[in-house]
Design a protein that fits this description.
By secondary structure, the chain is of the alpha/beta class. The chain is built from ten helices and ten strands. The protein folds into two domains: about 120 residues, Rossmann fold, CATH 3.40.50; about 140 residues, Rossmann fold, CATH 3.40.50. Helix content is about 40%, strand content about 20%. A ten-stranded mixed beta sheet has the order 3-2-1-4-5-10-9-6-7-8, with helices on both faces. Helix 1 packs parallel to helix 2. The radius of gyration is 19 Å and the shape is globular.
């Protein structure tokens, strides 16, 4: 993603009311980043007998256009027919976008049989994803998960951009998971988990770098450390800190050795999140 250009915002809806928070949060994101919006409507079931009936996308599109026009954001509208799991990744590849989506309001039996769609999208979409189970506006408190392997850099950069524009406070969070290995770096992390930014460990260096960048941008930043199961501790921090946006990177490898950044952790956090979650893939570039 070109740092000198604002990314486009690709907002996805299938016409259900559960997708409106994504429209609302995506519109806000476009306004603060000065980005262009593409609103993608996906029709998954097209009944020829009901071709003249009122389409559920119509109401969401009409409401969304009013919102975009009210805030003066440039936008375009698209409608595609077919499976959301196929259409959205295909469309995402066509532009340098942040993909904004939320729950699609599908029947519970469908979720039980095929799983939640967010897991599929996190695996198939290379672009950053903002998953919005509910909209929280304005964004005043941002949580960034830092792991020390650099996987969070893309998400961290986006979070800093958002924080600068919205003047939000930032908390840098690191989780020290249960580790049985006994080698110098592991011991240092285990013994200094409450002050890791003072250590010469990979995560210590990552925390210091993020802290310096945030302070150079004039942002208010806090560092927090927790010990225990990664998912449980992130969810606990989100609940205790009452954050408006949570950001994390991912290696997006099901074989990742780093628990903090495996695809399954990212998807589980998104599913149980109390606020919008911005995820961005690790890139070697």
């Amino acid at each position: 993603m070109d740092e000198d250009m604002a990314p486009d915002i690709l907002i996805v809806t299938n016409g259900t009311h559960e997708t409106w928070p994504a429209v609302e949060q995506g519109a806000w994101l476009a306004s603060i980043l000065d980005s262009k919006i593409t609103l993608l409507g996906v029709t998954e079931t097209l009944n020829p007998a009901a071709i003249d009936d009122h389409h559920p996308l119509e109401d969401v599109f009409e409401r969304a256009v009013g919102l975009f026009q009210q805030q003066g954001t440039s936008y375009s509208l698209e409608v595609r027919n077919g499976s959301a799991e196929e259409i959205i990744p295909q469309r995402a590849k066509q532009s340098d976008s942040i993909v904004v989506l939320g729950p699609f309001g599908r029947p519970q039996i469908q979720r039980l049989l095929s799983g939640r769609s967010i897991r599929h999208f996190l695996e198939e979409i290379e672009q950053p994803i903002l998953y919005v189970p509910r909209s929280i506006l304005p964004v005043q408190k941002i949580l960034i998960c830092v792991g020390g392997l650099g996987y969070e850099m893309t998400a961290e950069h986006l979070a800093m951009q958002i924080a600068m524009k919205s003047r939000a406070e930032i908390t840098l969070l690191h989780i020290v998971p249960p580790v049985d290995l006994d080698y110098p770096t592991a011991r240092t992390v285990r013994e200094n988990w409450q002050r890791l930014e003072q250590t010469n460990t990979p995560v210590g260096r990552s925390l210091r770098q993020a802290l310096e960048i945030a302070k150079a941008d004039g942002l208010t930043v806090t560092i927090k450390g927790r010990q225990g199961n990664v998912i449980e501790q992130i969810v606990a921090e989100m609940r205790d800190g009452n954050y408006d946006l949570m950001c994390m990177g991912s290696s997006y490898s099901v074989h990742s050795l780093r628990q903090m950044y495996s695809a399954s952790v990212t998807s589980e956090i998104s599913e149980v999140s109390l606020c919008p979650v911005l995820t961005a893939r690790y890139s070697r570039e």
